[in-house]
Amino acid sequence: MAQPEPRVLVVALSPSFADSIRALLGAAHLEVEERAPNEEGPLPPCAGCFVLAGGVEPDGLDWVGGQSACQPPIYVIGASADHRLALGAVSRGARDYFALPQDLDLFRRTLERVSREARAALAADRFADAERQVAGFETIIGRSSALQAILANARRVAAVRDVTVLLGGETGTGKELLARAIHLHSARARAPFVEINCAAIPGNLLESELFGHERGAFTGAVAAKSGLFELADGGTLFLDEIGHLPFDLQPKLLRALESREIRRVGGRAAKRFDVRLIGATHLDLAQAVASGSFREDLFYRLNVVHLVLPPLRERGDDVELLAESFVARLAAQHELPAPVLTPEIRAALRAHPWPGNIRELRNAIERALVLSPVGRLDVAELLVPPPVRDPAAGLPFPAPLGTIIRAAVLQTLERVDGNKSEAARRLGISRPRLQRILDGDTE
Question: What is the Cα gyration radius of the chain?
Fold first, then answer.
């Protein structure tokens, strides 16, 4: 489907000059609006405005100066090549001044660029509209007052372009979904939404991921690389599990947020960025500050607006609404008939505490769909009790010291979902040392 030509307005302060422009350009798609040099009034929405001031240049410049700063970009077209007119046009708010016919080629290229940028903006708006249909606030399921209060505040946050947001809540409550909805309903929706899980990347690589690096900055840096702050420019950067940000990287993030500048690893030049930061964590950062594992100054910089998503067990009938949605979606995905939620299933859903929240619910529904008889859900498959672990049987004892050390590493890895960097941090050892222990070297 062909993109419509964006609207480019030509304000003709001199009708005879407008006829000359048409003859030169042959641009029949341009929309021409004739105005007198002293006629005021706002410009209609358009991608760009080209003011034809030929023959009445001084009056035309006064007209440009009277336009509001929030109008579309204005370009002045005149008949005189006098540099004083060009300076006067720019000083009054014009993007550029073209003296025709000398600047005809430059004018044509500018017109093409304005149209191209407008087409790109139109495409970005359409993409954002489509994304809102699948990931906007309206797609977040739940009628509970606890959830609705958070969504109301999130909508207010979305309307403010730059405010930093810290999302809290237990694992699986939908923090990433809320962050994406805030982005899609903000003025930044045209620009990228870039996300990274701070707990999933080793600390020595996370700085390069966030800020980028220059060629030769470290072994293996064979080419320069843009960081996520650069890639998210104009949009939103979502730092999931920000509570696991390495301590030595925290002051660098704080400096970037305060100065709105980043410096690549191995680089000297500072680069400006325009990004809204949304952080998320299931940890209590205030407690982490008290324990010394998180910087107090960074906590206050992140904690501008703090939204805590309620756990599923506190959302009442929302668990049934979510279950119905997952049943319909997953049954279609796996090409299975969608079963009806029986009273027995509904009672079981309401009674379960859902420690894994929405993520646990989705996985439970998917498992039950696959393992239950076709066309129904089996309670025994829906709610599989977790294995009971005897705390006293955690470490082998008595046993050789090497066996105990390796068992401690394995149990720590299990607690942090296999994240080796986080396990090493909790054990107080380096990541290479942790890997050597896993490989059998406990010396």
Answer: 30
Burial category of 156 from C-beta neighbours within 10 Å (exposed 0-12, middle 13-18, buried 19 and up): exposed
Within a 10 A sphere around the Cβ of 151, how many other Cβ atoms? 17
Q: How many folded domains does the chain comprise? A: 4
What is the length of the chain? Answer: 443
Residues near 410 by beta carbon (within 8 Å), at least 6 away in sequence: 438
Residues 373 and 330 in one domain: yes
DSSP tag of 190 = T
Last residue of a domain, one of 66, 96, 122: 122
Backbone angles phi, psi at 275, to 5 degrees: -140, 140
CA–CA distance, 433 with 423 (Å, rounded to integer): 11
* Residues with pLDDT less than 70, the chain: 1-63, 65-71, 384-399, 440-443
DSSP string, 373-412: PTTS--HHHHSPPPPP--GGGSS-SS--HHHHHHHHHHHH
Q: How far apart are the first and last CA of the chain?
A: 66
- What φ, ψ does residue 272 adopt, rounded to 5°? -75, 150
Peptide bond into 398 cis (omega under 30): yes
Q: Where are the beta strands (DSSP E) in 232-275?
A: 236-240, 261-262, 271-272
For residue 3, what pLDDT is reported?
Answer: 47
- Distance of alpha carbon 178 from alpha carbon 385, whole angstroms: 29
Strand partners, 52: 12, 77
Q: Does residue 131 sit within a domain? A: no
Same structural domain, 366 and 246: no
Q: Are residues 282 and 145 in the same domain?
A: yes
Q: What region, left, alpha or beta, does residue 409 occupy, with left being phi > 0 and alpha being psi -120 to 50 degrees?
A: alpha
Residue 330 falls inside a structural domain: yes
Q: Residue 14: its pLDDT value, please?
A: 61
What's the CATH code of the domain at 407?
1.10.10
- How many Å apart are CA 237 and CA 275, to the nearest integer? 7
- Rounded to whole angstroms, the Cα distance separating 167 from 241 reads 10
Looking at the fold, whether 185 and 279 belong to one and the same domain comes out as yes
**Cα(24)–Cα(20) distance, rounded to whole angstroms?**
6
The encoded tokens of residue 194 equal 């870039």
Would you say 366 and 330 are in contact if contact means Cβ atoms under 8 Å apart? yes
pLDDT at 55: 52
Give pLDDT, residue 412. 86
Rounded Cα distance between 163 and 313, Å, is: 30
How far is 212 from 269, CA to CA, in rounded Å?
12
Q: Which domain holds residue 237?
A: 136-308
Q: Are residues 233 and 294 in the same domain?
A: yes
DSSP state of 161: S
